[in-house]
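Standup notes
- DV: blocked on the single-chain target, sequence here:
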Amino acid sequence: MPGPGGSAAPPDDGLLLPSVRPAALGRDAVGVPAAHGFRLLSRLPRSGCVFASTDWWWWIVPAGSDHELPWPRPVRYAPGAVVPDADRPRLINFPDGATPYTPPIPLYLVVCQLTGTAPAWV
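- DV (later): unblocked, structure below
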């Protein structure tokens, strides 16, 4: 498996995570339009693996991070980290810690702030 700068797996397999960052909690991905990518990355206290393509940036989160969290539009939530991009996102952020995950609650709150959406807990 690739390290920093790695590439994505075939679309039905989801994004390929670096082998040194096992996804023990499963993996999903939260996508935001690329125009928000750098702003979102700079506002988070900690980011896990982040993948980027021309149009979308994808943050790896634990599986089920959409449970009772209504992610605002235009955010895309991709179970299994199976992303719809045809141009295969590449890994652009390799976390310092031992986990590939971005904590979903801080990610959700910053995404809500960037999209002008009030957080909603279901």
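- Follow-up: Residues 1-11 have pLDDT under 50 and may be disordered.
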